[in-house]
Amino acid sequence: MIQSEDEKDSEFLSKALEDYILAGLSDFEKYDDIPLTLKAILYNRFDHWNGGDGFKLFYLRYYNEDIMVSEQSFVRLCRYYRGEDDCPQGVSKLLWGYEKSWVEFNLRASKFGNGADADYLKTIEREYNDSGLRYFEMMDDTPASLKALLFNRFCHWDSGSMRHSVEPFKKWYLSSYMGKEPDA
């Protein structure tokens, strides 16, 4: 049986919605007046071309109704930094500082385009990907560029080569950054 165009569209939309929900995005920006179906289609195409990693940042940066990037659009992607001037007591100063720097780099990069901050972010993302980490924990809520910054700093303090720091970084990221118990 040959499907009509409407049936094909309906099947595509159903699949896109299912994938969007399975990716844990059903509550993402749910009050921004952009229809869920449109977000699902955007996610479907983003996932097709980019493997899904970074969709939230992409959406917040380029598609949200407020096209101007705000500090809050990056802060909401952080686990430790919440936009404060000083690190709150009981929060890791190291992780808070890295996230604060990541927000500031992204704000300057989005404001000034292809400046030094944009170049730095591209460089550390390339190093992160070239080290084989492109798909590492890609379904968590941490943007790849933030993971790249964390990896860059981990390598700096670990004093090892990037190649030798990959496995220790993965363990550190899961336990120290994400707060997960290590697998036995």
Features:
mainly alpha; 8 helices; 0% strand
Would you give an account of this structure?
The structure is a single chain. This protein has 184 residues and is mainly alpha-helical. Helix content is 63%, strand content 0%. It contains eight helices and no strands. The chain has helices at residues 5-22, 36-50, 55-63, 71-75, 93-112, 116-133, 144-158, 162-177. The longest helix is centred in the middle third of the chain and has 20 residues, at 93-112. The protein is globular, with a radius of gyration of 18 Å. The protein starts with a helix and ends in a 7-residue tail after the last helix. The relative contact order is 0.09. The mean pLDDT is 83.
What's the gist of this structure?
With 184 residues, this protein is an all-alpha fold.
List the helices and strands and how they pair.
Elements lengths: L4 H18 L13 H15 L4 H9 L7 H5 L17 H20 L3 H18 L10 H15 L3 H16 L7
Helix pairs in contact: 1-2, 5-6, 5-7, 6-7, 7-8
The first-to-last residue Cα distance is 52 Å
Strand content: under 5%
- Mean pLDDT, nearest integer? 83
- Tell me the number of helical segments per DSSP (H or I, 4 or more residues long): 8
- From the alpha carbons, calculate the radius of gyration and give it in angstroms: 18 Å
The biggest sheet, with number of strands, parallel, antiparallel or mixed sense and barrel status, is: none
Helix content: 55-70%
Q: Could you give the count of β-strands?
A: 0
Order of helices and strands: HHHHHHHH
State the low-pLDDT regions, or none: none
- Structural category: mainly alpha
Shape: globular
